[in-house]
Amino acid sequence: MKELLLGKLNWHALPHEWFTIGGAVAFIMMIVSAAAYLTYKKRWKWLWKEWLTSTDPKKIGIMYFIVGGFMLLRGGLDAIMIWLQQSLSSGSSHGYLTSDHFQQIFTAHGSIMVFFVAMALIFGLINYIVPLQIGARDLASPFMNTLGFWLYVAGVVMVNMFFLLGGEFSATGWLAVAPLSGKEFSPGVGVDYWIWSLQISGIGTTLGGINFIMTILKMRAKGMSLFKMPLFTWGSLLSMIMVVTVFPLLTITVSLLFFDRYLGTHFFTTTAGGNAMMYTNLIWMWGHPEVYILILPSFGIFSEIVSTFSRKSIAHYKSIVFGMSGVATIALLVWLHHFFTMGAGADVNSAFGVATMIIAIPTTALVFSWIATMYKGRIRFSLPMLWFLGFIAVFALGGISGVLLAIPPVDFQLHNSLFLVAHFHSTVIGGVLFGIFAGLNYWFPKMSGFRLNERIGRYAFWSWIIGFFMAFTPLYVLGLMGATRRLDHYDGSNGWQPFFIMAFFGGVIIMIGVVLQIVQIVASIMQRRRLVDATGDPWDGRTLEWSVTSPAPAYNFAVIPEATERDAFWSMKLRGLQKPHYENIHVPKNTGSGIYISIFAFLVGFGFVWEIIWLPILSIVGIIICLVLRTFNDKTEYVVSAKEVEKIEQSHADKVRSAPSGSDTNEEDMGLIEFIKAVLAWALGLVRRKR
Amino acid sequence: MSKRRSKLNQSKPIWFVLAGLIFLVLLVAVLLRGNDVVLFNPKGAVADDQHRLMVISVLIMLGVAIPTLFLLYFFAWKYRENGKKATTNHHSSNSKFATAVFWAIPAATVAILASFMLPATQKLEPQRTIEAGGEPVTVQVVALRWKWLFIYPKQNVATINFIQIPVGTPVQFELTADEAPMNSFWIPHLGGQLYAMTGHQNRLNLIAESTGDYEGSAAEINGAGFAGMRFITRVSSRSDFDLWINKTKQSTKGLTAAEYNKLLKPSQNDAATLYGSTNPDIYSKIVSKYEGSHGHDSEQAGY
Questions:
Q1: Of chain B residues 106-145, which have a CB less than 8 A from chain A?
Q2: Domain assignment of residue B298, yes or no
């Protein structure tokens, strides 16, 4: 009876190790303090109505950023723990972690950074910016968007669930390589947590992909042909096409792994005709395109930043579009380079090696286009541009090491070594993360109405750059010294330890950079009046998102603009604006359905992890009921009347007129010392008021 | 602010970056002193070729990357807002010729790289036997949880976590695994790695050209005992090798079916062990154990 009700779940599953107890306490304290704050401020209703149930892609984008930001801290903490163990565990010392715990940490680090940080932050930017860039008022399916977001959140909760409810996390690497991830070698619930967090969030990603393809293809402003689209929109479109192409593959592959574990099938087992090599192929057929899904929007971001901050139109636009499309296409055809060492033979390896190298051609052409854009420009070194310059240095390193790894005989020596780890961190940190940071600094004024503090932003940037090279140069060297990845302990005699220690300190410097980024945002909020951008166009932008107020109104555009040229807003500025004619605008209503469905989806996963059979069955029924109810809901939109639109737009125009001339005011951004003083003063004031 | 001072300010990041780079190089050089950079210190023909290919490829790529990076940062500096060269030209040229050049440069580079890569991939294909130095020594490798079992079928001896091979003689490793996840067999001093998988046999051909002890490892994550699954490869002269074989044969410990079943039980950080005798078809039984759709009880397999 008890088993029927609770499956494998029992008291022993509850946290009983220092790291799960610590995680659980931190988790619960965060929830309790957030709940207490909301109750104290009476903000529950506001949170529910304004944010959680919102179908506005702009709000969903910001929520992606908040959740993804927290996950970045979580994944960063994992990285520090990995490096600390590796700096300590040499020779007779075995560090502070068991091998099993260590393996859980690097698995969590990889899974979280790819699925719950990089994907989330990219989706955040796409949500906020793409509709604005193409002159759309909302998405093709606003409901699908909130559903996708909440499924992602359900995945986030699932991946952190073992802290709260105990058990363990997967210890099989971020791709759960078979047959290690099968029941035979990993009998615990760890792999199941991994499976279900990916399954649930993966479905959300697929929904997002479909939605954005529809939106970009069908909802562009009049006159904006495909070849007039801003490049970030192009990158996003290609990325979303790839999502729709390969994410179903992930869903199927992980489902088969689930069948192996739960139903006892033999797709990837060692026995009974199972074939683990099949898993390796399938997971990389998704896994390789995945990194390009992340990098393509980033290429788009950098293209726009280079153009805006060089004050020139982008050079060789079509070459960039074709280049990105080429990358997107070839990226689907190179998965085998992740396992040249499986022994497929020289011919197969050669074919995939050449295909991989070919990706370097469009990528390099892209870099040349950026150089040509900067040539004879007027370059401002604002933060986004600084991140671009940092990206080039780090990404070049990642590109060179990447092409090196594409050469099969060389890969035999470098595969599974720390050189490989250093390579993909160069591409993902340099390409994806720096792209996101550049995009955040670039579009933050659009999201908030004030720009980010430049001074502290620069400190953060330099910490990241110094930290990156401090942390990953030693990993390149260690790879050349024959050090394999994922080692929780190594021999003391081969001289690896100093490099691991160096990498650890690099990691600490990166963490300082992350802290400085948080400080940057907090300081900017504190001095938001000084940093205010009333115009909505702080950088002298070229694309349509800069033509509306900051933050953009719920309906995005009072009047749908007409895009006659590539840099639509730039040409409008040259022509001068005409007096608009306002009309009623239909805006999607809030809905809680996305949240309800995601809760049920979470319970499906949770039930399967702990083998509580009745829970998934009931939850699937719940999902179906929610979906049916949603389809019968005809009142999904509300109307903003022409009068209201005029009022909002008028108040914006007044604000612009009364704002100090020019967005670059002479007042300086606050530095670190000023920030600390301000925080202390605020804290003191709080204490005094209490008395 | 004087003009000179502002000029200094503008170029500050450049000096800052240069100093950082020099510091980084010095730090790495100091930490490297006296240590073996294995991949740059090949001890066999395969590793040597792989090392050379790596260096050539990097040099070819740097030939394009360094000028490109220089140009990018130079333009960024030259056309900076406060500089003299900044223009108010808002349109980028899109000449077809430039586009062609942008694509041709990396395409030519990749073509050159591929011209090195393709023959090397054929030559260094691990399955290809090495035609030098006489008859090859065969070592059958079984990845277990978490130790390496090495069987010398001709010599009829076996070892755990230790191999000895003669210098200048090709060695053919036949790789498989038993009741273990995927593994990767890697002796970086001698050459690249290859996977060892259950029910599957991979051939890795290597040759050693100088004597010494070289570390080998399991490079693919495989569970709790992963980090300790290491072995020593001792390269010795032919006569020392024969001597070692003879000595090993005198060991009373044999790799019997019972002993092998003991080995199948997971264990970590096993010490090197020598077996004086072995069952000649034990390896083929291990590989064929996974054929067909029947179960895999080790008793059922019957050795």
A1: 106-107, 109-110, 113-114, 117-118, 120-128
A2: no
Q: Are residues B102 and B164 in the same domain?
A: no
Shortest Cα distance from A362 to chain B (angstroms)? 7
Domain range enclosing B54: 33-83+95-124
Partners of residue B54 in chain A, C-beta under 8 Å: 404, 407, 410, 413-414
What's the total number of domains in chain B? 2
ipTM above 0.95, yes or no: no
Do B106 and B206 have their domain in common? no
Q: How far is CA B190 from CA A466, A487, B139, in A?
A: 35, 21, 15
B54 touches chain A (CB under 8 A): yes
For the ranges A122-126, A303-307, A527-531, A543-547, the lowest mean pLDDT is seen at A527-531
Residue of B nearest to A400 (CA): B61
Sequence-separated contacts (24+) of A546-550 with Cβ below 8 Å: A546/A446, A547/A572, A548/A132, A549/A449, A549/A649, A549/A652, A550/A445, A550/A446, A550/A447, A550/A448, A550/A449
Instruction: Say whether residue A142 is in contact with chain B using an 8 A CB cutoff.
Output: no
pLDDT of amino acid B2: 43
- Of B51, B71, B295, nearest to A371 by CB-CB distance is B71
Residue B231 pLDDT:
94
Does residue B120 form part of some domain?
A: yes
Q: pLDDT tier at A662 (50, 70, 90 boundaries)?
A: very low
For residue B242, what pLDDT is reported? Answer: 93
Residues B205 and B99 in one domain: no
Residue B152 inside a domain? The answer is yes
Domain A2-690 has CATH 3.30.565.10: no
Domain co-membership, B201 together with B241? yes
